[in-house]
Specification:
alpha+beta; TATA-Binding Protein; five-stranded antiparallel sheet; 37% helix; 19% strand; globular
Length: 291
Amino acid sequence: MLQRILLACLLGVTTLSAWAISPYIPGERVQSGKLAAVAAEVERKLTAEGFQVLGLYSPKYLPTHGVVVATDAGMLAKIRSFGGSTIVAAPIRVGITTDGAVAYANPDYWDRAFLGERFAQAEPAVQSVQSRLAKALGAGPGFGGNESAADLPEYRYMMGMESFDDDKNLLATHPDFASAVRTVQDNLAKGKSSVSKAYELVLPDSKLAVFGVAMNSRDISDTLIIGKIGVQDRIAGFPYEMFVVNNKVYALYGRYRLALAFPDLSMGSFIRIVYAPEDIHTMLKAVAGGK
């Protein structure tokens, strides 16, 4: 990132907003209380601004933190028209804690990465989501690092690492869309590989689906990852996604997905979870019915 900042200066970029986009935005605090009560207040605010709530994610072994997951009709219309892996842009994640803190995933950051060259076509819908989130929840200064608008569509933490459309994302292939979705649903319901469902969004007319998944094994749990790299304040980087496009099941590979969520972390921090990308891939492949 430092090299990119220096290059921007050399090229005469004079405003920070020209390149710096942060992955998270703090909202206004709400009344503290049990996680379900905090979630209910956030859900009420989101619903009042036209968002559809999909579910509540709370990492096992971390009962003070959670994520309210919602979606938006305008964004879904764009995603239906785009198809493919853009389905991962459908969920809107709002992190909460029992002490009333709120911080949400910045649509301007995540959608530039997930929509790529199609972001320009979706930008009015993204801006609508952003402005209504700010109205519902508040909007403080972004945090969690920053990336340039130009870099996000082709984001890689380091040269040679995986990207958004990497071949490693593929988990399983099924005869058709219905059987792919059913396999994921059944295995999540069974808790296969200690993975459970946080939310699901299925668009059968477009043969697209996305599932938020909670990884609960003590050996490779969300809470273990969060603790090892110290990102409790960025809980809205979770939950991890699995998604279905036609008859194929995917999940963004960890060296892309985790790095995108926490771009300000040093390589030393990521070394603490060097095992995670392949372990996550193995767990989710089992859930997807992969061989």
